Amino acid sequence: MNDPNLDFTIKRLGSCHASSPMEGGRFTGDDERILYHSSPAEVRRHFEEGKEPPTLELAGPRERLFFDPGAIACGIVTCGGLCPGINDVIRAVTLSLHHHYGVKRVYGFRYGYEGLVKRLGHPPLHLTPASVSQIGELGGTILASSRGPQEPAEMVDYLAELGVGILFAIGGDGTLKGAGKIAAEAARRGHHLSVIGIPKTIDNDISFVQKTFGFETAVAEAHRAIYAAHTEATGARNGIGLVKLMGRDSGFIAAYASLIDSQVNYCLVPEVPFTLAGFLRSLEERLARRGHAVVVVAEGAGQELLAATAERDASGNVKLGDIGTWLRDAIKGHFNGRGMECNLKYIDPSYIIRSQPANPHDSALCLLLGQNAVHAGMSGRTNMVVGLWNHQITHVPIPLATRQRKKIDPDGWLWSSVLASTGQPREMQGIGKTLESHD
Q1: Which residue of 277, 303, 311, 437 has the lowest C-beta tally within 10 Å?
Q2: pLDDT band at 438 (very low <50, low <70, confident <90, very high)
Q3: φ, ψ for residue 378, nearest 5 deg
Q4: Do 267 and 424 touch, CB atoms closer than 8 A?
Q5: Containing domain of residue 280, as a range?
Q6: From the CA atom positions of the chain, what is the Rg in Å?
Q7: Shared domain check, 180 and 257
C-alpha cells in the first residue's frame, strides 16, 4: 500500500456550532494527524518528490460539535458473522453516548440491516447503561446479526422517521460498503446523517487498520486447538494434527497462531499457493524424519485445488470449498495408497472461536473504538471508520478501508517469521527439500 496518492480526507456534515459537554479530558484538534508511513525512507521520498506524505486524522473528542446531543437519537447495528468483542463495542458506544454527551435515545437495530427496514418488522431495542452493563461478559451480539443487502432508501427513511442523527455500523467489508451506501443516500437527499463504521472482522483484513477487535482473542483460542492437535500428533505413530482456522482471503489468524510456540510445522494461507503434490511430498519427508506433524490451514487456502463454484452467500462472497476436509481426505488417501501408517486427527474450532467473549486486551480496544466512534459522529464526521494505526486511534474513509482486502505479504517479515518458525519450504509448488523443523 505505497500509493502516493492516498486521500485520507474525512467527509463532514457541516460546521460545528455546539459546545461539547465533556469535561476533564483533552480535546483533539482537527489538525492533529499521524503519518501513514512508519518508514523514514518513505517519508523522505515524498518530500524529495515535493509531496506531502500521507497522514491520517487522529480520533478523539472535539471541543465543538455538529449535533446538539439533546436533540438527536443514535442507532447501533451489527452485521455479518460473529466475532469476539461485538458486545463490548455496543456497550462502549451506548455508555459514551449517555455519559459523555447526554444522548437519551439509543436504538439497537436487530438482525443487521434488516432492522433498519421498517416493513420487515424488527422493532429496535432501547439501549441504556443498565441494559448494557453486563453484556461484555457475553459472546456474540445482543442485537443479533444477518447478512445481505437492503435498500439504502428504505433504511434512510426509517432512520429519519426515528430521528437518528448518527448510525454506528459494526461489521466487516460488506457491512462497511453498505454503510457507505447509506451515507451516500443521506447525502443525496441533503439529510444530516452521520454514518460511522467500527470495523469487525475476525480475519483482521480491513485495509488501513492495523488490528481489528477480536483478532487477538481468535489467535489465543486458535492456539488451544493447535495444542490439542500437537498432543494428538505426538501421541501416535506418524501422527498428524490438522487444524482449520478462519481466514477467507487473509491468513493472519493462521500465521500468528503458528508463531506462538513453534508447534506448527505447516501453515497454509490464501496468500501463498501450494500444490497438493508438493505439500504431500514435504509432509512425507517430515514424517519419515520426525514421526509427527501439525498442519494449520486457513479456510481460504488452496481454493484453486478445489472444484470452482459460482455460488455466493447473502453478503456476495464466493462460497468457499471446504479445504479442511478436502485436505484431510487427500492426506489419508495419499498415505493409504503408499501403504504407510498415518494417524490423522482433524480439528475445526471456527464456531467455538468466533463465539467467545473478548479477552481483556480486545475488550480495551473495543472500548477505545466505541468511544472514538461516538466522538467522530458527534462532530459531524461521516462515511468513515475508526481504526488503529501505529498504535493510535484514527479516522479512515470507508472507500479506502473497503477498496481491497489487507493480506499477508509473502515477501514480508510476517511470512518470513512463519517460515522460520515452522521450517516448511518457502514454496510447495513441486518437490522440494524440507527445511529442518524446530519441533
Answers
A1: 311
A2: very low
A3: -65, -25
A4: yes
A5: 217-355+409-422
A6: 24
A7: no
Helix (H) or strand (E) holding 330: helix 323-337
147, 113 contact by CB (below 8 A): no
Asked if residue 439 has pLDDT above 90, the reply is no
Q: For residue 68, what is the domain's CATH number?
A: 3.40.50.450
Using DSSP bridges, classify how beta strands 33-35 and 55-58 pair: parallel, antiparallel or unpaired: antiparallel
Q: Which residue, chain included where needed, has cell 514424517?
A: 287
Q: What is the mean pLDDT of residues 140-150?
A: 92
Gap between the Cα atoms of 205 and 141, Å rounded: 21
Average pLDDT, the chain: 93
Q: What is the pLDDT of residue 432?
A: 39
Q: How is residue 306 written as a grid cell?
A: 478445489
The position carrying cell 491468513 is 251
The pLDDT value recorded for residue 5 is 66
Say if residue 15's pLDDT is above 80: yes
Number of structural domains in the chain: 2
Q: Specify the higher pLDDT residue, 383 or 313.
A: 383
How many whole angstroms separate alpha carbon 205 and alpha carbon 263? 25
CATH classification at residue 222:
3.40.50.460
Determine the Cα–Cα distance for residues 123 and 75; give it in Å rounded to an integer: 12
Enter the pTM of the model: 0.92
Residue 265 has pLDDT above 60, yes or no: yes
Catalytic hit among 88, 157, 173, 203: 203
Would you call 261 a catalytic residue per the annotation?
no
Residues 55, 143, single domain; the answer is: yes
What is the distance between the alpha carbons of residues 354 and 172, in angstroms, rounded to a whole number?
Answer: 14
Q: How far is CA 286 from CA 3, 283, 416, in A?
A: 42, 5, 20
pLDDT per residue over 155-174, tens digit each?
A: 999 999 999 999 999 999 99
Listed in sequence order, the residues at least 6 apart from 41 whose beta carbon sits closer than 8 Å to its beta carbon are: none
Cβ atoms within 10 Å of 148's Cβ, excluding its own? 14
**Average pLDDT rounded to a whole number, residues 112-129:** 97
**Among 200-214, 365-379, 417-431, which is the least confidently predicted range?**
417-431
- Is residue 131 located within the same domain as residue 169? yes
Which set of grid coordinates corresponds to residue 106? 439509543
Of the candidates 354, 377, 383, 359, the residue with the CA atom closest to the CA atom of residue 60: 377
